[in-house]
Amino acid sequence: MKKRHEQTQRLISFWIASLTMVTLALLLSAWTASFSHANRSQDLAVSALARVVDIQYERGVPLEQMVVWLPDMLKSYRAHDFVLLRGGEPIYQWQPKNGVEKRPVVTYQRTLRSNNIMQITLYRPKLLPGFGFEEWVLIALGIIASLVVVVAGTLWLNKEMAGVEVLAFRARRINRGEVDAAGLPLKGERPLSVGRAMIKLHRMWKREREAKLELDRRIRANTFLDSELGLGNAMFFDSRLQAQTHGDMMEGQGMVCLIQFSGLDGLPVNSRLPILRQFVDLCEPLLAEHSDGVFARRHWLELALLIPMLPLKEAEALAARLQRITTRLDLPKGADDEQLVHLGLAYYNQGDRPDQVMEEAEMALRAAQLQGHSNWFMYDKGAVDRELAQGTVRWRSLIENALSRRALATFFQPVKGRDGELLCYEMFSRMRDAQGQLVRAALYRPMARRCGLTPRIERVLMELGLQQMRNSDSPVPFSVNIAAESLMHPRFGKSVSMLLANYQGRRGQLILELNERELVQHANALAPVLQELKRIGVQLSVDGVGHTVERTDYIDRFGIDWIKLHPSLVRQLPLRPENQLFITSLIQAANLSKVQVLAEGVEEESEWIALKGLGVNGGQGNYFGEARPHQGTEET
């Protein structure tokens, strides 16, 4: 019996067995009754013979006359033998002259009124040979009718139970975590009332789920969102700026821009907001290409912009374009169009302190305001990273050369669980240039994206990771960061399938890690690719969760296995109740699925203790171990 049939086939088998047993019992009862009736009839015949002999004695008929007709009667009885006793002595004996048959016999004894004893031995009645043609026809018709009823009943019951099996299959899908199966009725389900009840319950669950997700989103939004403009608030901007630091020092280059609408001071409060909304809407296409950028509202008339890894020349060009956008605003009467907006820029480098960066940006804003008319200003620090300022042509040549030499060094950072167990690794990379120097990923990966080489790099990194895991025979999963543009590349999916065909036994170790903002932005385009990756056994992870406020319905839609909290939510977590509220809301939204919630950027024990208290499943950061080559991480 196959496991998938559950109890229905057992029920059918039990029904057939029960019906068979009842039929056999009826047949046995009928045979027993017939046999008993035959024996009873034989006993009555013997009694009748004894009465005849008694009557003959009472009439005074001598024995010599009785033996004339008695043998013929005994032959009609098909008797085995006959004995008439008087005083224990036989006075008459009879046995057929042609011999006796070898069949079971039964002996009957009757005491006559003449004190004689009659003993007659008869053959046991044959039940089946006693039936005539008509009886056999009736028996055959009864058996055929019974078989027809059994077969028809079995087919009907199988049909009805097949509907129960269909419903049970749907229930098994739900038990496996495919909750949406509850809302998808299957053809032939029985009973219909149960299927309709499941659909109704799924609709109710879905409404409650959507309401809860929306409530969680609003909780997170109210924590970090400016409700009037839909941008991040000052707390959001500060936390994202802190996320760019390591040990109170900025980790790379980038730009901070403060935008002050000084020319709106004289307007009523209700007239300022439409102008700010116009400016934000016009900036969206301009800032769309900077996926890591942070746009926030710090004060009533002051906006802030943070863009990491932005070359200096592009920062200056962006400031000029932002300045030009203000000329397209539809200003009301009373607005000072000459001194409408001032921009203060601060370009930071690795090692700068975040408070110094903000102080420099505010000083640049004051300098722009002192110039009077609408303009932008940035101090020349003279410390721009020359490598970042290189042109894209040289970067393309450098990266393609490294790819041809497979000059990518891989490092693995451990991800630990609540009890210290190793959950997985995250793979990082550095590029070795022609001089043998390692170029950090924060420098070469943005330039690779500008040159359109990101899919090639990520494909090579996946292959390197799988090779190292196979060579070391390590069963631990590892994640590789994948850009949305790579997954949407027309040839990338085919190349990944060909690569995984060479590593059949290690598909489950590979975790592809996407950025949350990119996943939400390109969800429809990514859906076919992600569903195919899940089908072949690849795990999916989403990082940067909480960098922006997004709905988390993508977890169920794409079957996400891991989500990673943005480091800005983790930094100094015990001192930030708003971040704790944000994480709590996010974990509650993820509780209905089997996704593992991890925290990135854990640096201190106090942060890890607070994260565990909030229900996070695991953590990653220097607190657990730095990223090392694979041989080093084996002991981590």
Shape: rod-shaped
Total strands: 18
Spatial order of the strands forming the largest sheet: 10-11-13-14-15-16-17-18
Cα distance, first to last residue?
A: 48 Å
CATH architecture of the largest domain: Alpha-Beta Barrel
Quick one: biggest sheet?
8 strands, mixed, barrel
Mean of pLDDT: 83
CATH superfamily of the largest domain: EAL domain
Q: What is the share of helical residues?
A: 40-55%
Strand percent estimate? 15-25%
CATH class of the largest domain, named Alpha Beta
Structural class: alpha/beta
GO molecular function, one term: cyclic-guanylate-specific phosphodiesterase activity
Keywords: Membrane, Transmembrane, Transmembrane helix
Transmembrane segments: 12-33, 136-157
Domain GGDEF: 252-381
Structure at a glance:
By secondary structure, the protein is an alpha/beta fold.
Give me the secondary-structure topology.
Blueprint: H1 8-58, H2 63-76, E1 79-86, E2 89-94, E3 105-111, E4 117-123, H3 133-175, H4 192-224, H5 234-243, E5 254-260, H6 269-287, E6 294-299, E7 302-308, H7 312-325, E8 342-348, H8 354-370, E9 375-378, H9 392-404, E10 408-417, E11 422-432, E12 438-440, H10 441-451, H11 454-472, E13 478-481, H12 484-487, H13 492-501, E14 510-515, H14 516-521, H15 523-535, E15 539-545, H16 554-558, E16 562-565, H17 567-570, H18 577-590, E17 596-599, H19 605-614, E18 618-620, H20 630-633
Helix pairs in contact: 1-3, 4-18, 6-7, 9-10, 11-13
Notes on the structure:
The chain is of the alpha/beta class and 636 residues long. The chain has four domains: 121 residues, no CATH class; 74 residues, no CATH class; 146 residues, Alpha-Beta Plaits; 242 residues, Alpha-Beta Barrel (TIM Barrel), CATH 3.20.20. The protein has 20 helices and 18 strands. The protein has an eight-stranded mixed barrel, surrounded by five helices. The chain has a five-stranded mixed β-sheet with strand order 6-7-5-8-9, with helices on both faces. A four-stranded antiparallel β-sheet has the order 2-1-4-3, with helices on one face. Strand 3 and strand 4 form a beta hairpin. The chain is rod-shaped. The C terminus is likely disordered.
